[in-house]
Amino acid sequence: MSARDRYHEEFKTALESEGWIVTDDPLIVQLGVIKVKIDLAAERLIIAERGDERIVIEIKTFGHLSFITDLQDAVGQYMCYQFMLDKTNSDRTLYLGVPTKVYNRYEEEPIIEIFEALNISLILYDPETKNIDKWIRQPNTKR
Questions:
Q1: How does pLDDT run across 69-84, given as a tens digit for each residue?
Q2: Beta-bridge partner residues of 124
Q3: Residue 19: is its pLDDT beyond 50?
Q4: Contacts of 113 by beta carbon, 8 Å cutoff, 6+ apart
Q5: Is pLDDT of 116 > 50?
Q6: Which CATH class is domain 8-136?
Q7: How many Å apart are CA 38 and CA 30, to the nearest integer?
Q8: What is the model's pTM?
């Protein structure tokens, strides 16, 4: 079994408190012989006119000393997962879970634009309060 991120359970609690039902913990996606485990898959009924909303989240802690190393790992992993979800015709929208404190620390830095430039949707969460603070869905998200 692969290691979970440090704040996995706190993020899961935050997601469930917003009315999401965790359907897979983790979601296993296979493309050819490659199999990956994405941290969480969840869904909730929005309203009848919109149908079901289904998401999958890769939770990151950003716990290393180097922000740029954590960022490279997170972005690379996200891009691989997005590619695999696209190739397997998944109907889930992929999000990257990022601690709010980490995002806020670098929010004014130009490097934070990488999320928009690469079309990476985010969920900002506070592991201490077990709350989701903000959803940042990129406008070019395929789902």
A1: 999 999 999 999 999 9
A2: 98, 134
A3: yes
A4: none
A5: yes
A6: alpha beta
A7: 11
A8: 0.89
Domain extent listing, the chain: 8-136
Looking at residue 91, what DSSP letter applies?
A: -
CA distance 52 to 49: 9
Model pLDDT for residues 43-98, shown as the tens digit of each residue:
875 444 445 788 999 999 998 889 999 999 999 999 999 999 999 999 899 999 99
H or E segment to which residue 16 belongs:
helix 8-17
- Smallest Cα–Cα separation from 93: which of 49, 27, 31, 3? 27
The torsion angles phi and psi of 102, rounded to 5 degrees, stand at -65, -50
Burial class from Cβ neighbours inside 10 Å (0-12, 13-18, 19+) for residue 41 reads buried
